[in-house]
Amino acid sequence: MGTTRRVLILADGDNTFLAAQRFNRRLDWQKIRDYLADPQEGRELIEMVIYIGLPPARERFEEQRKTKEKFIYWAKSNGFLVVHKEGKTKGDEYETNIDIVMAMDAIEFALDVRPDIVVLVTGDSDFAYLAEKLRRRGMRVEVASVEQSLGNDLKVAASSIVDLIGVFDSFEQKKNQQNFHRIGHTNIFD
Fold first, then answer.
1. Could you report the per-residue pLDDT of 111-146, keeping only the tens digit for each?
2. Which of 100, 122, 160, 180 could form a disulfide with 173 if both were Cys (CB 3.0 to 4.6 A apart)?
3. What does 120-167 look like in DSSP terms, one character per residue?
């Protein structure tokens, strides 16, 4: 057997959830983890961290918050490390700046744990500088996303791209009124 490579997976939970939602899919974090850290591919999972922005504890966000809190409980119960940050109200919406937390943790984890591969599960181009910074430290940086949700700056900054289309295609359809479409390689914005 070949060399085993140690893999650290850092996932932008909200970004990944929105990508799945665009395709009317239920997100399956276990399938994503198993796909990105497949031992048969010579990959050893160090840790998978999911970053979640929590809505403020205000009445208008109560339902959203409960949904995310249930997810956090599920993820922790299923072996994922979850980092969450309390949001602040911004007009009728809220913001959490969880991206900053993820970027800071990525640098710290990378320097402390020294993985061979850091997988960023996001399409957000805000992480392009992080990808470049990790690569300058000698780490392979893979960006795992669905092509339609992948920002060009991040695509260029990564060592390689892992297209999650095949994994997303295996997710269950959400139970709502939207039509179900196979993702394939078609652009959802066409």
1. 999 999 999 999 999 999 999 999 999 999 999 998
2. 180
3. EE---GGGHHHHHHHHHTT-EEEEEE-GGG--HHHHHHSSEEEE-HHH
